[in-house]
Specification:
alpha/beta, globular, Aspartate Aminotransferase, domain 1, 2 domains, single chain, Aspartate Aminotransferase, domain 2, binds pyridoxal-5'-phosphate, four-stranded mixed sheet
Length: 460
């Protein structure tokens, strides 16, 4: 391919003509170049015009160990030359066996069975399907419903989209899979007035809502509850103290499975292998994806407790579900090498040691009139933007449209920071840097966000 055909302008033009970008208003590029990223190194990426950006979102919560890791590329090449592909239907391959064993050894408690998929949505679909078939096989065929939280994102395939709690991305595809119902999320900043000063009471109120919902639906009809350890969509809602412990008790009381959707939080984002470890609860199922290979090759998984595979071990029994590329040998080999890096370089400890500095660096932004709250844990933070700090008044739809899409997203990108401006709940900026980052990148992030928010406030 000629150098000219790889130039920024040419790539952008061809992208406009042929590339259908995800969740993207294509018309927004009618008058601007489509940004095309061509290279990465550590916590930074470069576009086709040679400009550098800080990876403030790790790609999409993916690139945990940073870019340019030749050892991961080499492992992929070696595996592709040895055995490029074989499915996980009827026979196994060595990287999948090793990876399943490794994940089982890392996962909390009796989560020892790993069903691979290619992405997070498929992992969520798989978890719901497993719950449904499991209950059919164990004499409770009426249990098919799933409970999840308002504004939570669990994926886009029809089952996962049904579990997702964002009406805006669901309605065009209705009717969806029946039996998916919602409860409140743990957005303490927007707690009812009478709970604003009591985080633990707020947590009890949130967990009680799950019990209320189970009773409203009829416990005999509820299969599982899907929760992220820290809810991403809405801008990083950590769990209040005691929340997950109470949810666990509720699930046990009514025989409902607890699924920890760790597509974002697994493999160190919160300074632990799993969010369940950080917040001290035992799920029945964990879904993982994104960071498992740091993005060097796609793979995901649904991990289940020993108890859940039992009915499937009987003669003639099987889980009636499979995906051609799931657990791909190249991706499985890369995942093992990626876990080696996370372990070998002590990245979990690194996150735990540095998360305090990350938080306090971001908290400096609280002196800006537009910053209402900084929330999150580990290397996973949301910055909520408000019109009035005193009253916590948020922006209306039109203001939010201008602020996030009209100004902040392009301005932050132009200033060299890739992060996410989101108004699926109230307007937020989200940051989740690679786990290799430290104070230097935190400061760079804070300074870029500060200057862009200061400019935005002047223009409001
Ligand atoms: N679950 C959660 C919590 C997610 O954050 C995502 C994606 O962001 C998904 C599921 C869907 O994953 P994927 O985009 O790999 O299908």
């Amino acid at each position: 391919m000629s150098t000219d055909s790889l130039s920024g302008a040419s790539l952008s033009e061809r992208a406009r003509r042929h590339l259908w970008m995800h969740f993207t208003r294509m018309a927004s590029y009618d008058e601007h170049e489509v940004p095309v990223l061509v290279r990465g190194d550590g916590a930074y990426v470069w576009d086709s015009n040679g400009k550098r950006y800080l990876e403030g979102l790790s790609g999409l919560f993916v690139v945990l160990v940073g870019h340019g890791r030749h050892e991961l590329a080499n492992v992929a090449a070696k595996q592709a030359s040895e055995l490029a592909y074989t499915p996980l239907w009827s026979y196994a391959h060595a990287p999948a066996v090793e990876l399943a064993e490794r994940l089982a050894s890392l996962a909390p408690g009796d989560i020892n069975r790993v069903f691979f998929t290619t992405g997070g949505s498929e992992a969520v679909e798989t978890a719901w399907k497993l719950a449904r078939q499991y209950f059919r096989m164990t004499g409770e065929p009426g249990r098919y419903k799933v409970i999840s939280r308002d504004i939570a994102y669990h994926g886009t395939t029809m089952g996962a989209l049904s579990v997702t709690g964002l009406p805006g991305i669901k309605t065009p595809f209705e009717p969806l899979v029946p039996g998916a119902v919602r409860v409140v999320n743990t957005d303490f900043y927007r707690a009812p007035d009478y709970l604003r000063d009591d985080y633990e009471a707020f947590g009890r109120w949130c967990a009680d809502d799950i019990e209320r919902r189970i009773l409203m639906e009829g416990p005999e009809s509820v299969a599982c509850v899907f929760l992220e350890p820290v809810q991403n969509s809405g801008g990083c809602f950590p769990p209040p103290p005691g929340y997950f412990q109470q949810v666990r008790e509720i699930c046990d009381r009514y025989g409902v499975l607890l699924v920890s959707d760790e597509v974002i939080t697994a493999f160190g984002r919160l300074g632990h292998w799993f969010g369940a470890d950080r917040y001290g609860f035992q799920p029945d199922i964990i879904t993982v994806a994104k960071g498992m290979t740091s993005g060097y090759s796609p793979i995901a998984a649904m991990m289940a407790s020993d108890r859940l595979i039992e009915p499937f071990l009987g003669e003639k029994a099987s889980f009636l579900h499979g995906i051609t590329f799931a657990g791909h040998p190249v991706s499985a080999a890369v995942a093992l090498a990626n876990l080696d890096i996370i372990e070998g370089e002590g990245l979990l400890e690194h996150v735990r040691e540095n998360e305090g500095v990350f938080r306090s660096t971001l908290e400096k932004l609280l002196d800006l009139p537009i910053v209402g709250e900084i929330r999150g844990d580990g290397y996973f933070y949301g910055i909520e933007l408000v019109k009035d700090k005193e009253t916590r008044e948020t922006f209306n739809d039109e203001e939010s449209e201008w602020l996030l899409r009209g100004f902040l997203s392009p301005a932050l990108f132009d200033a060299g920071l890739i992060c996410r401006c989101d108004d699926r709940g109230d307007p937020v900026i989200q940051v989740a840097p690679p786990l290799i980052c430290g104070p230097e990148q935190f400061t760079e992030m804070e300074q870029i966000i500060r200057s862009v928010l200061t400019e935005a406030w002047k223009r409001i």
